[in-house]
Structure formats: structure tokens, C-alpha cells
Amino acid sequence: MTPEDGDAILRDYFAPWIQDLGLRVEEVGERHAVVRLPWSEALTRAGGGLCGQAMMAAADTATVVAVSSARGGFVPMTTVQQSTTFQRPVTGKDLLVHVRITKLGKTLAFSEITLTPDGATDPAAQASTVYAILG
Q1: What average pLDDT does this structure show over 87-104?
Q2: Which long-range contacts (CB under 8 A, 24 or more apart) does 124-127 make?
Q3: N or C end of the chain: smaller count of CB under 10 Å?
Q4: 94 closest CA partner among 127, 50, 57, 33
Q5: Three-class SS state of 120
Q6: Containing H/E element for 112?
Q7: 3-class SS at 41?
Q8: Which residues contact residue 9 at a Cβ distance below 8 angstroms, ignoring those fewer than 6 apart?
């Protein structure tokens, strides 16, 4: 799968409000994906930081791209569980969402996600997800 294939998944399978986030697939591999959430004032909360809801949506959506890459293309799937820990605010920078598939079974996929401001080394948040593969 290529980043362009990942962008097609974002365009073809997600609700308009997710598409409005402007997510772009930067990289895909056998068991990983990197997706960029562009900085937008529209996604900030009081105080000017990127809101957690946008970060969680980006992590959840990027996981679909990573699972699709690991399976060789999109298949229907749904989130079973997502846990997110926020560590520091993100202000004025794009967010890079790094997803690593830790286990890919026939019916479940598990991932670890690191969300890091562009150019930073320390993560702003970390998440884990479990997905049910439906197809």
C-alpha cells in the first residue's frame, strides 16, 4: 500500500467531519502508518491547545489506515476500544500520528499510537486501540 492508497481510504470511507480534519497519510508499511493532522485554529480549545477530541479522532482514523496496510487493503472494521493518555499540549504545530500494529489476527487488531508535534521528540499523547475486523 502507498500513502496515496491511504489517502484514498480517508477520502472514500470516512464521514465528512473526519475528512474536514485534513488528515494526510505520510507513510505506510507492513505494520505501521504515519498520518499528519494539520494544525488548525478550528481544532483548538480554550487556551489555544489542540483539543483532545481531534487528537483521538486522528489516532482512531490513522489506525484504520495502518490495519488496512497490514491487511493489504481496506476491509470493514470498527473500533472496540481506545485509550488515550495526554502528556503535553500541542500549539501551533501539525501533529504526527504514528501507528504500530502490535497484533494482527483474523478478527482483531491491536495497535499502539504515538502522537507527536511536528519537529518534537517527546510525544504529546499516546493511545492504544483494539479493532474488530468485520470483513
Answers
A1: 97
A2: 124/50, 124/55, 124/86, 124/87, 124/88, 124/89, 124/90, 124/95, 125/52, 125/55, 125/59, 125/84, 125/85, 125/86, 125/87, 126/84, 126/85, 126/87, 127/56, 127/59, 127/82, 127/83, 127/84, 127/85
A3: C
A4: 50
A5: coil
A6: strand 108-117
A7: helix
A8: 64, 65, 68, 74
User: Can you tell me which residue has the cell 480549545?
Assistant: 45
Question: Of the candidates 96, 85, 87, 86, which has an alpha carbon nearest to the alpha carbon of residue 119?
Answer: 96
Q: Please check the confidence at residue 135 and state whether its pLDDT lies above 90.
A: no
pTM for the model: 0.95
How many Å apart are CA 74 and CA 18, to the nearest integer? Answer: 17
128 falls in which pLDDT band (50, 70, 90)? very high
Beta pairing partners, 117? 95
| pLDDT over 90 at 3, yes or no | yes
Q: Which helix (H) or strand (E) holds 69?
A: helix 52-71
Whole-angstrom Cα distance, residue 129 to residue 115?
Answer: 13
